[in-house]
Write the structure tokens for this entry.
Amino acid sequence: MLGLILALGLAPAAWGAIVPPKPTHFVTDEAGALESDTATQLERELREYETATGHQIIVYIGETTGKEPLENYTVNAAQSWKVGRKGKDDGVVLFLFMRDRRVRIEVGYGLEGDLPDARAKQIVDETIVPRLKDDDTDGAVASGVAAILTTISPHFQASQPVSAAAAPQSSSDGDGSDDQPAWFGILLFVGFVPVVMLVMGVLRWLFTLPKGLKAADTAFITTPRLFFSGSGSSSSDGDEGVGSSDFSGGGGSFGGGGASGSW
Amino acid sequence: MQTRSLVGIGIPIAIVLVVAFVIGGTYNSLVTLGQAVDSQWAQVQNVYQRRADLVPNLVATVKGAANFEKSTYLAVTEARSKVGQVAPQAAQNAPNDPQAFAQYEQAQNQLSSALSRLLVVVENYPDLKATSNFATLQAQLEGTENRIAVERMRYNEAAQAFNTKRDTIPAVFFVSMFGSKFNEKNYFKAQPGAESAPAVDFSK
């Protein structure tokens, strides 16, 4: 009848929060709720979006939050996954829990101004929930993500997959061969690439290491894939396939902004 | 003879040095943990302030509705002014001062329950509920209550980290030397029933 009134008391049990493992993709579908085409398309779109704007926006679809209240669970998960960049806290996670029939948009501190609670609530109520009620999970997630992206970055347009790093490299190569003999351009190019890779590597190392250690998450030591996937994408030779540039949290922080709904 | 006196001097010096290092290290980490509590406390105050800032708008909106029960929004206004009456100095120092903390928490809890009563009453005014202005305020209030819960929880975690350090060896042997500098930090308590901050599920 009336709104459900819950005690948001601070049960000590809520302190040692249980959190699902860090997603390695922009779209994680633990419940098998999405068509694989939709997931692939969204994955590409969100990866492109991160490349273009730096904001990390991911989708997580699970079955249930268990006994934990939705909002506790989602803020703890988003916080421990470190979605968004460190210091900018510009991450957003769209959560769906299929068995609970609950949805939540969790907004990082840095995007609370661009995606205020009222707008998040509007997206949940008007874009996502009606489609979920019609059993159109794909449509709900795709249009929900689209609404989030246009709200935060009105000018962003998802494009066809293009190698982001290839363009500047070939243009600098072209410039060199216009004014200088070809060997000069080649020399420049040959000297330039290792320097860039070295700098990227050092930067990666500087930013990845303390984060990993602080989180007591030594995954990057045991599995260097995480470590290399980032620098791989910066000197990438094409972005085909879901696995070519996986998601890895950048150190963003969450304070409970966003909105929830149910269907 | 000479080596004996050297050892005789050296051992006490070594002991003093070790003790000084241990105390120094513990002192420093207590200071660090204490600052973490203070900055988390500032976050708590921020989100409570955010809620207090929503109140005038909320009251103005429900006032506009025909025949809205006056007592409910008067209770909110009153609770809001009580929150404002907590002296800033006392509010700032609340983590270290049990009395100030209790006063602050009580004022905020009173506003919480006044707000939740107001939202329950609003259910009887479908016309009001349907306005976009009220829907926006509802979403903001809901988000703010959620933020309050998050920041309170993180504050308690920070306070717990500090208190654990403070009450274990070696800190427990010397914290009293520093007077009130390392007072135990206060916790937010889980409130039974109606006393607690409400999470209102507006989807129902």
Summary: Chain B touches chain A at residues 43, 47, 116, 119-120, 123, 135-136, 138-140, 142-153, 156-157, 160, 188-193, 196-204 (CB under 8 Å). Residues 99 and 138 of chain B are 33 Å apart (CA to CA).
